[in-house]
Design goal:
Radius of gyration: 12 Å
CATH topology: Non-ribosomal Peptide Synthetase Peptidyl Carrier Protein, Chain A
Distance between the termini: 9 Å
CATH superfamily: ACP-like
Largest sheet: none
Order of helices and strands: HHHH
Strand content: under 5%
Number of strands: 0
CATH architecture: Orthogonal Bundle
Structural class: mainly alpha
Length: 87
């Protein structure tokens, strides 16, 4: 189970960093990291992040669920719950 959590976290970090502005792409991502304020993931970038997550994990995420995501930890928990990995 630890390996699955590590893989989930690493994959989500890769995706978030890919869509983060260049000046924030190297930021340390922790469960408390705020995606908008700390990483600079605005609405258009969040759409890109969600589409990439859906493709990578083979899941669908409702708009209402995306709107509730504020931190990297909340993203981990949401995706983890959808794919059956405890975070």
């Amino acid at each position: 189970m630890k390996t699955e959590t590590t893989t989930l976290t690493a994959t989500l970090e890769e995706i978030v960093r890919r869509f983060a502005p260049r000046d924030r792409a190297a930021i340390v991502l922790t469960p408390a990291t705020r995606l908008i304020d700390d990483v600079g993931i605005d609405s258009p970038r969040m759409i890109d992040v969600v589409l990439e997550v859906e493709d990578r994990f083979g899941i669908a995420i409702e708009d209402e669920a995306v709107e509730r995501i504020r931190t990297f930890g909340e993203m981990q928990a949401l995706i983890g719950a959808r794919i059956g990995v405890e975070v």
